[in-house]
From TrEMBL, chain A:
Residues annotated as domain FAD/NAD(P)-binding: 19-363
Obligatory cofactor(s): FAD
Source organism: Tothia fuscella
Pfam families: Pyr_redox_2 (PF07992), Pyr_redox_dim (PF02852)
Reported function: Catalyzes the reduction of glutathione disulfide (GSSG) to reduced glutathione (GSH). Constitutes the major mechanism to maintain a high GSH:GSSG ratio in the cytosol.
Protein name (record): Glutathione reductase
Chain residue ranges for the region called Disordered: 264-287
Catalytic activity: 2 glutathione + NADP(+) = glutathione disulfide + NADPH + H(+)
Automatic annotation (TrEMBL), chain B:
Residues involved in NAD(+) binding: G185, A186, G187, Y188, I189, A190, V191, E192, G276
Protein name (Swiss-Prot/TrEMBL): Glutathione reductase
Molecular function per GO: flavin adenine dinucleotide binding; glutathione-disulfide reductase (NADPH) activity; NADP binding
Residues the record marks as active site: H455
Residue ranges annotated for the FAD/NAD(P)-binding domain, each copy included: 9-333
Annotated disulfide bonds: C46-C51
Length: 501, 466
């Protein structure tokens, strides 16, 4: 799709300051604002109270991937001796230097957002927005201390994202860090406890383990990634143990965290000091974790990756009547409408598929719908068959239904499941015992007589780049026969997907 | 005493990718009596002197690149010894040998009789095999499949001293890493070798006849990969020709050549001719039954793998269909057996939209038409989308160390049906398969765009192109 031919922008009605108010300059908000402004010439104001680009650029996707790449390199260095490279075991990494380069990359990305906004004529306001209770109106407390400003527009978009939480039932949990704090680390801890079983816990545990940190994962069940297909849960949990991650399963929870290196900070069991975001955790940090069952663990750091909550507390949604769900997310329909006419929400704040590309796509479709030509009046994102990748070790790619979900939807008898597991050719020069620790595994779930592919789950080296094309095929309604009709590419791992029996 | 003649339903000449796939299906799935003949090693080119050892070596080279890149990421790897080529070769050879054994076991499991020897066609139903001990084994066959593959072409007749160099087969015999290598050729084999040698630390000279290599690939690929090779430090001699090779003794050879800079000589310890491949039909006896071949000696077949003799079929590198790729031979072989023995009267391989990857540095993936070919076929109704960027992996490197990623989607018609896809950069090898499936399904640009991007990857750029 291309932008429409240039035409004169329509004038904004006098009671409005703008055509479009976008609260939040992350993936969703930015894309929404840019679509409205540059394609449809809507007078747009974007309000952001943090660094441009939001979570993805600053404390999410981008620095995560850069650190993942460092972990991959470390793994390659480990593998080298199998190929005849004489690489010593204890290779040191100047993590502080690495972090400074990563920070620069993040800054470049963040500045690109500013440049794009400026180039596309979007007014950027730095401050914290809230609803005043008056229709179509938003008030911003300005970051620079200059006071408050009022904005009015027919259309208001909430794209404020979310943030990671710490447990409320663990004494002095704040001695630890969340995923935000992960990106403040300058000196790698020697040991770390990672609490959580979602993809963020799994990614960070994998990265830290690859970089030589002793990692203890604490999960409530027997596997992690419990929303993923059982094949992924089982194989990846075992794989993490095979590569040295210590997983404490059926864990009932921690009771308290004590700071050992600076005990004078403790006052009646509650710490007086903890690191704040942006400050690197102290390299001498030492913690004693006490579990509910009495066990204690002494570690250098604890990373809470137990979930994220929507960033709504400053918005005063109640004043304008925007409804939220049980989990506190903003309730939206398939068109991103909230319960209030003229107010919309996209991205992590809605709790749907918390992924940057989803927020971007939803933001653009919304812009098309609100400001675009008549034929796009009903534009919306299809929230089905959305491919995602977890940057674990190795990565996991998934699209569509898990096997249990498919069984529930279609009935077991209507399904045909294809499965294969093998070590990638890369590991063929490893010893037999080592080879089995490096699985590649694929599952294709087909439904109905024509064997339509309704679920695809892939695990192994290279699946992060493998999944996108398969996603295109699945969205086109691919069947097993379609997969098999494409000649295999050899030698790759991907070829196994089109030759499954 | 000469062995007694054998009989079979299906005689497969050639135990490589195509022959074995067809033979195993005929026997294992359809219960036919099948005999397979191989004169060298089971698995043919792919397993022994092609895809497999090539990829293993490419993996070794990838590690060298990681070691090189690791400094930018803050790792201190000052004290690595150079790559131990002979240790690596041993491991690679051992893996190939394991595969030879697996291929033999697979034949047994599918009840295919395997004879080691060199075949010669006597008549349309009779083939004589010269066994290892010199005996002649006569085989009577209802159907014959010629899947003998090819071999690297040597320039011996044209260039004096050419035999001082080796070819792709010989590459896999090299025991010690050369300090300097000259590779002559501009096809994918030459380009892959050049990339690997360079990554492993050998001073690499690539001699090409024109200005670019991979000349059957899209111009974007030619241009960017040539530039990248030069950026990496591979010395490319353009518009070159070689007049002779002289032996200087002590393992050193001297190539006398002309290139765009003028005349010159190069002292080198290893020379690899990668100037093409020829069908392995010498002594096969094609002329005995009048099998038609083209001017290069490839057996002429139709899309059903029929030759001009009604019970004789051919597939794989020996035929004139192009696409000299293992999976093509395998797919053609299986469909042939489906057609001959499985009752699937129309089974055949569509020789169109076949994806392939060149394991250069960077990887190159390609399916469908190049832009020039598309313009020729469809004229003005084509639309081309292109994206060039630096993969996030290079975010930590200085500008001069960053490698390219580039993608081109070639569409035609009002629906923008994708008729060609060309990708180069990190991850392209694993990226292409899924897009191949979509393109074979008739994907349009809109289909590409409908799929939500996966972030952060390189692949996402293919579904968000403007």
């Amino acid at each position: 799709m291309a932008p429409p031919p240039t035409s004169a922008p329509k004038p904004t009605p006098p009671s409005y300051t703008h055509d479009y108010i976008v609260i939040g300059g992350g993936s969703g908000g930015s894309s929404a604002a840019r679509r409205a402004s540059s394609w449809y010439h809507s007078k747009t104001v974007l309000i952001e109270n943090g660094p441009s680009g939001g979570c993805c650029v600053n404390v999410g996707c981008v620095p995560k991937r850069i650190t993942f790449n460092a972990a991959l390199i470390r793994e390659m260095l480990n593998h080298g001796k199998n190929y005849g490279y004489d690489i010593p075991d204890g290779i040191s990494m100047d993590f502080k230097h690495f972090k400074s380069l990563r920070d620069k990359a993040v800054e470049r990305n963040s500045k690109a957002y500013d440049r794009n906004w400026e180039r596309e004529g979007i007014e950027v306001v730095r401050g914290t927005a809230r609803f005043t209770g008056r229709e179509k109106e938003v008030e911003v407390v300005m970051e620079d201390g200059s006071g408050r400003r009022l904005f009015r527009a027919r259309h208001i978009l909430i794209a404020t994202g979310g943030y990671p939480v710490m447990p409320s039932d663990v004494l002095a949990a704040k001695h630890g860090i969340t995923s935000d704090g992960f990106f403040d680390i300058e000196v790698l801890p020697r040991t770390i406890a990672v609490v959580g079983a979602g993809y963020i816990a799994v990614e960070m545990a994998g990265i830290l383990n690859a970089l030589g940190v002793v990692v203890h994962m604490f999960i409530r069940g027997k596997t992690f990634l419990r929303k993923f297909d059982p094949m992924v849960q089982d194989t990846l949990t075992k794989r993490y143990e095979d590569i040295g991650v210590i997983i404490h399963k059926d864990f009932a929870g921690f009771e308290k965290v004590e700071r050992l290196d600076t005990p004078e900070m403790e006052e009646g069991g509650v710490s007086a000091k903890h690191e704040s975001r942006g400050t690197p955790p102290s390299p001498s940090k030492r913690l004693r974790l006490k579990a509910k069952n009495g066990e204690t663990f002494d570690v250098d750091e604890i990373l809470w990756a137990i979930g994220r909550v929507p960033e709504v507390k400053d918005l005063d949604l109640v004043s304008i009547g925007v409804k939220t769900t049980k989990t506190g997310h903003i309730a939206v329909d398939e068109f991103q409408n909230t319960s209030v006419n003229g107010i919309y929400a996209i991205g992590d704040v809605t709790g749907q598929y918390e992924l940057t590309p989803v927020a971007i796509a939803a933001g653009r479709k919304l812009g098309n719908r609100l400001f675009g030509p008549p034929e796009l009046k009903s534009d919306k994102l299809e929230y089905a068959n959305i491919p995602t990748v977890v940057f674990s070790h190795p990565p996991v790619g998934t699209i569509g239904l898990t096997e249990p979900e498919a069984e529930e939807k279609y009935g077991k008898e209507k399904l045909k499941v294809y499965h294969t597991k093998f070590p990638a050719m890369f590991y063929d020069v490893f010893s037999a015992e080592d080879k089995v620790k490096h699985p590649t595994e694929f599952k294709i779930i087909c439904a109905g007589p024509e064997e339509k592919v309704v679920g695809l789950h892939i695990l192994g080296d290279g699946v992060d780049e493998m999944l996108q094309g398969l996603g295109v095929a699945m969205k086109m309604g691919a069947t097993k026969k379609d997969f098999d009709s494409c000649v295999a590419i050899h030698p790759t791992s991907a070829e196994e997907i089109v030759t499954m029996k | 005493m000469a062995p007694i003649p054998k009989e079979c339903d299906y005689l497969v000449i050639g135990g490589g990718s195509g022959g074995l796939a067809s033979g195993r299906r005929a026997s294992g799935m359809y219960g036919k009596k099948v005999i397979a003949i191989e004169s060298k090693r089971l698995g043919g080119t792919c397993v022994n002197v092609g895809c497999v050892p090539k990829k293993v070596t490419w993996n070794a080279a990838a590690i060298a690149e990681s070691i090189h890149d690791s400094k930018a990421y803050g790792f201190s790897v000052e004290h690595t010894a150079p790559f131990n080529w002979s240790y690596f070769k041993q491991k690679r050879d051992a893996y190939v040998k394991r595969l030879n054994g697996i291929y033999e076991k697979n034949l047994q499991n599918d009840k295919v009789e395997y004879i080691h020897g060199r075949a010669s066609i006597k008549s349309k139903h009779e083939v004589e095999v010269t066994l290892d001990n010199g005996d002649k084994q006569l085989i009577k066959a209802t159907n014959i499949l010629i899947a003998v593959g090819g071999h690297p072409t040597k320039p011996e007749d044209k260039i004096e001293g050419a035999s001082l160099g080796t070819d792709s087969d010989g590459f896999f015999d090299i025991e010690t890493q050369p300090k300097k290598v000259a590779i002559i050729g501009a096809g994918y084999i030459a380009v892959e070798f050049a990339g690997m040698f360079h990554a492993l630390g050998t001073e690499t000279h690539l001699f090409i006849r024109h200005e670019t290599f991979l000349r059957t690939f899209d111009p974007m690929v030619q241009e960017k990969v040539v530039a990248e090779y030069e950026r990496q430090g591979i010395i490319i001699h353009k518009n070159s020709s070689q007049s002779k090779v002289v032996d200087l003794g002590d393992g050193v050879k001297q190539i006398h050549y002309k290139d765009s800079k003028g005349e010159g000589t190069l002292d080198i310890d290893s020379i690899i001719w990668a100037i093409g491949r020829s069908p392995e039909t010498e002594g096969l006896g094609l002329e005995k039954i009048g099998i038609k071949t083209d001017e290069k000696g490839h057996i002429i077949v139709d899309k059903y793998q029929n030759t001009n003799v009604d019970n004789v079929f051919a597939l794989g590198d020996v035929v004139n269909q192009g696409f000299e790729l293992t999976p093509v031979a395998i797919a053609a072989g299986r469909r042939l057996s489906d057609r001959l023995f499985g009752g699937k009267k129309d089974a055949h391989l569509e020789y169109e939209n076949i994806p392939s990857v060149v394991f250069a540095h960077p990887e190159v993936g390609s399916i469908g038409l190049t832009e020039p070919a598309a313009r020729k076929k469809y004229g003005d109704s084509i639309k081309v989308y292109q994206a060039s960027f630096t993969a996030m992996y290079y975010a930590m490197m200085e500008q001069e160390d960053k490698g390219p990623t580039a993608y081109k989607i070639v569409c035609e018609g009002p629906n923008e049906r994708v008729v060609g896809l060309h990708i180069l950069g990190i991850g392209s090898a694993e990226m292409l398969q899924g897009f191949g499936v979509a393109i074979k399904m008739g994907a349009t640009k809109a289909d590409f765009d409908k799929c939500v991007a996966i972030h952060p990857t390189s692949a996402e750029e293919l579904v968000t192109m403007k």
